[in-house]
Specification:
Layout: E1 7-14, E2 17-24, E3 30-35, H1 47-55, E4 58-63, H2 84-98, E5 103-108, H3 110-121, E6 126-132, H4 164-177, H5 187-200, H6 205-216, E7 232-237, H7 245-254, E8 259-263, H8 275-286
Parallel strand pairs: 3-4, 3-5, 5-6, 6-7, 7-8
Antiparallel strand pairs: 1-2, 2-4
Length: about 290
């Protein structure tokens, strides 16, 4: 059951870059940082999911990556605007702004890759790691083995106007691609969040390219994922139409002691019918951690 919980919005700073974040739950709750995927605003961590976790005793924080939402944008920047190291630094800046020495990290898709990188390079800041809907990012050359390359091309030749209604429709269509064919799609909720995202900052197609360039350039320290010591949970949709479940299984196989959980019928998203299951798994992972 989703309950009413305390909520606040604030800004962290990483040098000259401002990172907007929102916090749910009591200040003394278990610290949980949610890291969003590629070109995704923090709002795609559904608000009711955040409230559900806060109701279980977490202090839940979600944030906008640089180049998204209410955080600093790099529109018009030519060349390499920033790196994955900078984006990982943004997450640490949020922890610092909150006064957290360390936290439980939960990332989805690209956010899971950032979580893997932080667990490997800043282990003292990571209590536990939950890697969702992702692939091993320490070996970028193997990425193509885990992705469904044709799925995104369903929208490649579809044109959208610059007006509000067209851009909201584009965002909803992109989200729809993350659901398996035939799965229930939360049309009303998706449209409401897409409208809120547009109001916060209209979509910038060049931001996706900058974030992709940053993620491709990541360099993992040896021995890669095998060096991660944080207790790790790997979650993947067994019917993910974008990233094959083998990607998640490979992450779990490479991190010592990691546990893999696959959900039939789940795609590259967080369907409401799995929120309680995911929260239960997070509770098992974080119970008893320092």
């Amino acid at each position: 059951m989703v309950v009413s919980v305390p909520y606040e919005r604030a800004v962290a700073r990483n040098g000259e870059v401002e990172i907007a974040y929102e916090a749910f739950g009591e200040p003394d709750g278990r610290p949980l940082l949610l890291i969003a995927g590629l070109d995704g605003q923090m709002l795609w961590w559904w608000t009711d999911f955040c409230r559900l976790l806060a109701g279980r005793g977490y202090r839940v924080v979600r944030y906008d990556h640089r180049d998204s939402g209410l955080s600093t944008h790099f529109t018009g920047h030519r060349g390499t605007a920033y790196t994955a190291v900078d984006m990982a630094g943004d997450a640490l800046a949020v922890l610092d702004a909150l006064g957290w020495h360390d936290a439980h990290l939960c990332g989805a898709s690209m956010g899971a890759g950032l979580g893997q990188y932080l667990a490997a390079t800043a282990p003292e800041r990571v209590r536990t790691l939950t890697s969702m809907l992702s692939i091993p990012v320490d070996r970028p050359a193997s990425a193509l083995a885990y992705v469904h390359p044709l799925r995104p091309f369903k929208l490649a030749f579809r044109r959208y106007g610059d007006d509000r209604a067209s851009q909201i429709r584009r965002t909803v269509d992109v989200l729809r691609l993350t659901y398996p064919d035939g799965a229930r799609f939360p049309e009303e909720q998706a449209r409401a969040v897409a409208a809120e995202c547009h109001a916060r900052h209209p979509h910038d197609p060049t931001a996706r390219r900058r974030q992709l360039a940053a993620s491709r350039a990541v360099r993992f320290p040896a021995p890669g994922l095998a060096g991660i010591a944080a207790p790790t949970l790997v979650i993947h949709g067994e019917d993910d139409p974008l990233v094959r479940p083998a990607g998640g299984r490979a992450v779990a196989a490479r991190i010592p002691g990691a546990r893999f959980v696959g959900y039939p019928g789940m795609g590259h998203n967080l369907p409401e019918e799995r929120w309680t299951d995911i929260a239960d798994e997070l509770d098992r992972l974080t119970a008893g951690s320092r």
